[in-house]
Design goal:
The complex is a heterodimer of chains A (198) and B (428).
Chain A lengths: L1 H39 L6 H22 L15 H36 L12 H30 L3 H8 L2 H22 L2
Helix pairs in contact in A: 1-2, 1-4, 2-4, 3-4, 3-5, 4-5
Chain B lengths: L1 H13 L4 H16 L8 H9 L6 H15 L1 H12 L7 H13 L5 H12 L2 H5 L3 H12 L9 H10 L3 H29 L12 H7 L4 H15 L5 H18 L5 H34 L2 H12 L3 H18 L2 H18 L4 H16 L6 H10 L4 H24 L2 H11 L1
Helix pairs in contact in B: 1-2, 2-15, 3-15, 4-7, 4-14, 4-15, 5-6, 5-12, 6-7, 6-9, 6-11, 7-9, 7-20, 9-20, 9-21, 10-18, 10-19, 11-19, 11-21, 11-22, 13-14, 15-18, 16-18, 17-18, 17-19, 18-19, 19-21, 20-21
Classes of the chains: A mainly alpha (198), B mainly alpha (428).
Amino acid sequence: MRAITTCVDRIARAGVWLGGALILLAVVLIGIDVVLRKLFSASIGGADELAGYALAIGTAWALAAALLDRAHIRIDSLYLLLPAPLRTFCDLLGLALFVGFFALVGWHGIGVVQQSWASGSRSQSALEIPVVVPQLLWAIGLGTFVVIGAVLFLTAVGRLLAGDRAGAGRLIGTRSAQEEIEEDLQAAEARRMPASGR
Amino acid sequence: MIPVTLLILLALLAAAVPVAAALGVLGLALGEIYARFPLSLAMGELAWSTSNSFLLVAIPFFVLLGEILLRSGMAERMYAALVQWMPWLPGGLMHSNIVACALFAATSGSSVATAATIGTVALGEVERRGYNERLFLGTIAAGGTLGILIPPSINMIVYGVLTETSIPQLYLAGLLPGVVLALLFSLTVLVACLLRPGLDGTRIETSWEGRRRSLPDLVPPLFIFIAVIGSIYAGLATATESAALGVLAALAVAAWRRSLTLAVVREAIEGTMRTTAMIMAILIAAYFLNFVITSIGLTAQVNNYVTSLGLSPMGLLIAVVVFYLILGMFMETLSMMVATVPIIAPLMINAGFDPVWLGVLIVVLMETAMITPPVGINLYVVQGLRKRGRIDDVIIGTAPFVLTMLLMIAVLIFWPDIALWLPRSASR
């Protein structure tokens, strides 16, 4: 189990790098384009298009890392007032719906790829890129996200079955709730310490 | 149709379902219940076209810009310089906080980044100078919100994309209200310190020599502002391109300050992609939802319903302001904008309000939402930086500025030219 978790973590991290590199590349490309346009009235042509692809592919590949870091926004005003078992249920439900929704997006995304492949459509800019290439990279990113999301869900369920609710909360709880848990743990430890004589 | 939609949305959000999933699932559910043909078939095409939209590319660029600036040391020097220039007002450093926020906002598209950066730099001074901690924290939480009003602004980009309003026009429209709001914040500090001198702290030694030497430290923020905003109005760059220029300018500043290390770039990229993925997930789901609610005729129904109420434009406006003030207490601002603007903006524009002016009004309402409890992101940011005490201190210290914000909303309503004068004179 641990091996899988590490592996998933690495893939997510690599996804962030891929996405970040693409965005940085887009920055440089656009910078060059603006300068060329001003000074030489020339243009690379299609820098905007490539930047768009960078955003799409980068987003798809970074979704998983954001999920593992619990960066996707949840509104937890009510959630924080709920008893722990209900909170855990909300965590699992939210995760399932999030991954499920993007699984559906990815599924229909494959349809988009197939259509572009069948029609052999190319972008309308001077680059005339076969759009199936960026679309495929995007769809694979979404697919990877779904797999990682599913692994995360199963890991959390595994921890719950093993009776480790705090551990599951660290994986899929909201950030503020987790901080509370840690505070509780620290408080518990502080209380225990004098008793154990340390 | 309207009650069912609200019920599903509220249930999902209350269960702390991630906002992106809540919007997406709502779209699927509404399509399932009300559509005559399966709308989910359009999902792939919609997701792809949203994901590679060139306008939205500005979002990762501005996030990256903020991440680099946060680590470049620019803010420390800028703050130290501002401290030299404004010690004489009652309220001292608290004015520096607000001006530093306003200046930083001119390089940053995000309120969280603004409050976090200035807060990191300023918080050490509270105890050293004996200021009233609550009010001091309030100036940072409230001043930070200027991030999205003074251009550049991620929220204005999102508004512009959702309503097909010109982003350069929105930027121009935000500039003057941003300056006025900063002045009103300063005035709030001034009044508070005159009424209760105990709130104030001790002064810092300043000299004309120190002031002169501090001037170069104000150049980097100016340089970035000119790269981002100047390039748009000089006709050199589009809104997205200007954001890329801003990133390059920030990299240059960081390199000049010798703070551009591999570790900095790595951290900046990680933070950027995390935030980008989070925002884009919400936007992808929101676009799908918008497609569904338009297809099933919900937008038209809301329109008819509101028309049937027979509200005057002013009545409608007040209803919208109250709606956002209440919703803003409980919702994160970007999610709130994405979920509501597609329905509210057409209503308001039909009623005769200017889309650019409405954009500025909504951004000011979002700023208010960032400092109204229980859910106010800037309150959390400042409390997070402080690492001690209770969040109540931040909430109480920020409360006077919420009133200032309401005053600003009134100013915008009764004097719309404050937003529209600049864009109008620029387009002439």
